[in-house]
Write a structure and sequence with these properties.
The protein is an alpha/beta fold. The chain is 39% helix and 21% strand. The protein folds into 2 domains: 2-264, P-loop containing nucleotide triphosphate hydrolases (Rossmann fold), CATH 3.40.50.300; 286-349, Ubiquitin-like (UB roll), CATH 3.10.20.30. It binds guanosine-5'-triphosphate and magnesium ion.
Length: 351
């Protein structure tokens, strides 16, 4: 699962990439992609308990677009490099420069949001118009083609009114439109790259409509002092905290940004435990037990009998999964059970 870092030139995209990944981009020109471990205290505690040979966390990938990918104010057209790096991403992280104009951050944020959304909307509109023209040329027959055409016309109307598709879930989530990978349909985490003085910035001062287009199910705002956090990305957590405390910042935002990214992608984790391995497995929210089994192996999904389930906290409190089983504390669930974030699961299956 991939998140593309977008934003106006020199807003601090590469600095945010460094803060999140602890790595320098592989290239200043081409897109760079790095997978980052999703911090998870549940995995840590279970790993401390089991002391397994291997511990596996969930991960998300961040993409820094590199210098040549260009998203400029009023450029009118997004380059091929930008599109090829951003289309495959499931979500966007929009970096807004909140450090060069600290006296009016809100105004600056509003402008940056509007100009980036305009670029995304225009790119989608171009795609829709092309497709509509093509369909018209082929002659629109009843059936699936007519349906696609009608949905595209609705999409076109919304985009022409300047509405990002993420604000219209019925279009953003439509199966027939999914293959377009519309840019403005992707959820956005809006990172305000602040100075240390502004690190407590909140989106409350922003216009409501603007805020709504970036908040709720489709994302949120978070201040991050990227230049500082890029410096501490490879320090031990305690050292990092001490460093930030010198600048009056209580908590590093880095972990929150990564956790929010994972959440924004619509993902959660279930866990497997044992002496060999403690592991977080990534599944979509609302996944069923059988889908979860399939993430481990398709054979386990196919031969699914039952899922043994216990939440992670009880697993620890009861002295481990096997011990909890002996005490009869483990639930048996069927294939349609909706897995909860943090469930510890052991699958019974036959092949
Ligand atoms: N003071 C301050 N400077 C910053 C901060 N973040 C980035 N900068 C500076 O702003 C400039 C641009 O930062 P980059 O991270 O390269 O920005 P970018 O968005 O990747 O730039 P392009 O890829 O060229 O569009 C650099 O000189 C950074 O040192 C910050 O939080 N505070
Ligand atoms: Mg850059």
């Amino acid at each position: 699962m991939r998140i593309a870092i977008v934003g106006l030139p020199s807003s601090g995209k590469t600095t945010v990439f460094k803060a999140l990944t602890g790595a320098n981009p592989a290239s200043a020109v081409e897109a760079s992609l790095v997978a980052v471990r999703v911090p998870d205290d549940r995995v840590k505690q279970l790993s401390d308990f089991y002391k397994p040979k291997k511990t596996n966390y969930a991960s998300v990938e961040f993409v820094d677009l590199g210098g040549a990918a260009g998203l400029r104010k009023d450029a009118g057209e997004l380059g091929a490099k930008f599109l090829s790096a951003v289309r495959p991403a499931q979500a966007l992280l929009h970096v807004v420069d909140g450090f060069s104009l600290p006296e009016s951050v809100d105004e600056f944020v509003a402008e940056a949001i509007a100009s980036v959304d305009t670029e995304l909307v225009l790119a989608d509109l171009g795609q829709v118009e092309k497709r509509i023209e093509r369909l018209k040329k082929e002659g629109i027959k009843a059936g699936p083609m007519r349906m696609e055409f009608e949905k595209l016309e609705k999409t076109q109307q919304a985009l022409e009114a300047g509405t990002p598709l993420r604000c219209l879930p019925e279009l953003a989530l439509d199966d027939d439109l999914r293959s377009f990978s519309f840019l403005s349909a992707k959820p956005v985490l809006t990172v305000i790259n602040t100075t240390e003085e502004q690190s407590a910035w909140s989106a409350k001062g922003l216009d409501e409509a603007l805020r709504n287009s970036r908040e709720g199910d489709w994302g949120c705002f978070i201040p991050l002092c990227a230049a500082l956090e890029a410096e501490i990305a490879d320090l031990e957590p305690a050292d990092a905290r001490a460093f930030l405390a010198d600048y009056g910042i209580d908590e590093p935002a880095r972990e929150r940004v990564i956790n929010l990214s994972f959440d924004l992608l619509g993902l959660m984790s279930f866990l497997t435990v044992g002496e060999d391995e403690v592991r977080a497995w990534t599944i979509p929210k609302q996944a069923r037990a059988q889908d979860a089994a399939g993430v481990i192996h398709s054979d386990i999904a196919r031969g699914f009998i039952r899922a043994e389930v216990l939440d992670w906290k009880s697993t620890l409190d009861l002295g481990g999964f096997d011990e909890a089983r002996k005490q009869g504390k483990i639930r048996l669930e069927g294939k349609d059970y909706l897995v909860k974030d943090g469930d510890v699961i052991s699958f019974r299956f036959n092949v």
